[in-house]
Amino acid sequence: MAQMYDTDEEQERVLLIGVQLDNNEEAAMRSLDELKELARTAGAQTVGKVIQPRESFHPATYIGKGKLEEVKDLLIKTDATGIICDDELTPAQLRNLEDALDTKVMDRTMVILDIFATRATTSEGKLQVEMAQLKYRMTRLSGLGTTLSRLGGGIGTRGPGEKKIETDRRIIRDRVTRLNHELKELSSHRDVTRQQRSQNSTMVAAIVGYTNAGKSTLLNHLTNAGILAEDKLFATLDPTTRLLKLANGEKILLTDTVGFIRKLPHNLIEAFKSTLEEAKYADIIIHVVDCSNPDMDYQMQTVYETLDQLGVSGKTIVTLFNKCDKLPEPPSAKDLKAQYCVNISAARGDGLEQFDKVLQEIIQENRIYIERCFPYKDAGKIQLIREYGQLQKEEYTEDGILVEAYVPKNIYDKVTS
Ligand SMILES: Nc1nc2c(ncn2[C@@H]2O[C@H](COP(=O)(O)OP(=O)(O)OP(=O)(O)O)[C@@H](O)[C@H]2O)c(=O)[nH]1
Ligand SMILES: [Mg+2]
To answer: Distance between CA 24 and CA 124 in Å, rounded?
Structure first.
């Protein structure tokens, strides 16, 4: 996606800095590997990595004094143009690191916000990203003074669309108020759409999962949705919903949405709440897992933590272990949180028939069997059953219409009242 980044920009060369808070060196390394992917997606080249094991982040400089000297040397040796710290820096840490290192200082949040800014395509997506960016900047304006003037271009300066970043606190505050208002309006519009959907009685499944797991590839394969799917983090920001017709002729709505990642910036979760809440209003959660990724367990845990944070609970979960084609043999992975697990390859289409069967089964489970005699004046109710349920028997008798049928839980009350 070369056009997303200004080609006149000199490619940034960055050093990645991480702090390892527990004894788990491997986890710290993986987190930095992921930061490298984030940097790559944002258009920066990683020229070195530094991890410091510490009890806690240094309150003033994130890493300790000694490590700071090491980074200083490495900056010169590698000819780096900046550093990216793997955790969100406080305004003070940001300022102090800049003073000490005399280079462009960025953090994980800034990089993620930057990627989101270039990815957003719908007006809602753009508003949400801008909101998150403004909130991040607002708290850092005093410290960010030099950073902002130093940034010049590149990571941290990109806004959604062609927008230039704003540095005036008063203008930012006004803008935040306006954005809040616009987002509220969009969100009430979304509520209406959701209401219409639930009246419609078609079950809704939200496809969730770690970024790059293959969510969009899955929806594309099933429905020719034509969503951009690529080997970059956060390829998808805006939700897409498609109707899937199952093998038995029944229908279900599938929604593909933004991926999760560890240390997802708080401001982004806030700003993207209405997008992320797709999962909350769904009947079924389809959890796509990249089982070829060595970090799979941690990624699954992150997904469940994020769902918890969003207040998503009590849903039927189907976990799809994806990218099986990359493994020599099918994985024996289990997911205790899921009611169903299927091994698939979304790219090749393997396992999708079984997934189809699982969806049929869930739809069936959500139906209630009824056997009753409807008076002739209630013929409209039978029409409802015919449309959304399964009519097993319909017999016209003297007393009324004798019906045996399976009906979806959400229209059960309507037809039996
Ligand atoms: N080998 C293999 N690659 C896959 C499979 N499914 C997806 N991929 C690749 O994985 C990468 C990410 O796929 P996406 O569908 O964009 O993943 P996503 O979960 O939508 O990612 P985000 O939108 O970034 O959160 C792409 O390069 C896909 O081609 C699969 O079954 N096998
Ligand atoms: Mg996607």
So the answer is: 39
CA–CA separation, 345 and 233 (whole Å): 19
235 lines ligand 1 (CB under 6 A): yes
Q: How confident is the prediction for the chain on average, in pLDDT?
A: 87
Rounded distance between C-alpha atoms, residue 345 and residue 254, angstroms: 18
Alpha carbons 87 and 7: distance in angstroms, whole number = 28
User: In 3-state terms, what secondary structure has residue 333?
Assistant: coil
- Taken as a whole, the chain contains a residue count of 417
Domains within the chain, CATH numbers bracketed: 2-151 (3.40.50.11060), 201-364 (3.40.50.300), 366-416 (3.30.70.240)
End-to-end CA distance of the chain: 55
**pLDDT score of 161:** 62
For 141-161, letters b (16+ CB in 10 Å) and e give eebbeebbeebeebbbbbbbe
Among 41, 217, 224, which is best to mutate for testing ligand 1, by the most ligand atoms less than 8 A from CB?
217
CA dihedral (6, 7, 10, 14) in degrees, to 10, reads 70
> Ligand 1 in contact with 222 (CB < 6 A)?
no
Can you give the pTM of this predicted structure?
0.85
Ramachandran assignment for 200, one of left (phi > 0), alpha (psi -120 to 50 degrees), beta (any other): alpha
What's the CA-to-centroid distance between 319 and ligand 2, angstroms?
17
Residue 211 beta carbon below 6 angstroms from any ligand 1 atom: yes
**Centroid of ligand 2 to alpha carbon of 51 (angstroms):** 30
Q: At residue 5, does pLDDT exceed 60?
A: no
Q: Using CA positions, which residue lies closest to atom 27 of ligand 1?
A: 231
- Retrieve residue 143's tokens: 């410290």
- The 284-290 sheet, strands edge to edge: 240-245, 251-256, 203-209, 284-290, 316-322, 340-343
